[in-house]
Amino acid sequence: MPTKKEKVTFICDLDTKTELEHWAREERQTISSLVGSIVAEALTARQNKKNIKKEVEPEPETIHELVQRNINKLRRRTRVRNLKLIASAEVLPTKDDFLLIMQALAVPEKLQQKLWFATYGNNSNYQKGVRNGTI
């Protein structure tokens, strides 16, 4: 009976092979299906571990933090010129640059608002990039 599963060969020591044979007999499986289920469980655990790591990263507090974390992605996806200066908090982004950054990173609206007020406060007179502390 043909299957759509791929064959994979691996090398192990004699003790491991003996243990796998014993375990497969206990489970009433072939060694192949036992190893397949072990690997599938390991891959699932690995994927869950990756997802947990992604969730653990805290939200950025400022636009500078956000740009710093994603500077390479932003260089590829946007034409914002001062990314390095924005990331190092030397310059504030223009309103247009702020929107381009949010759009490129698909930032949720609540976080956008939080970053907006952390960056500009309630003052909406920022038309161009302004050096910190000059206004």
Question: Gyration radius, to the nearest Å?
Answer: 26 Å
| Global geometry | rod-shaped
Give the mean pLDDT: 85
Can you write the helix and strand succession as a string? Answer: HHHHHHH
Task: Provide structural commentary.
By secondary structure, the protein is mainly α. The chain has two domains: 14-56; 63-120, no CATH class. The chain is 61% helix and 0% strand. The protein has seven helices and no strands. Helix 1 crosses helix 2. The chain is rod-shaped, with a radius of gyration of 26 Å. The protein starts with 13 loop residues before the first helix and ends in a 15-residue tail after the last helix. This is CopG-like ribbon-helix-helix domain-containing protein.
Summarize the structure.
The protein folds into two domains: 43 residues; 58 residues, no CATH class. The protein has seven helices and no strands.
Descriptors for this entry?
mainly alpha; CopG-like ribbon-helix-helix domain-containing protein
Helix and strand topology:
Elements: H1 14-27, H2 31-56, H3 63-69, H4 71-77, H5 83-87, H6 95-105, H7 109-120
Helix pairs in contact: 1-2
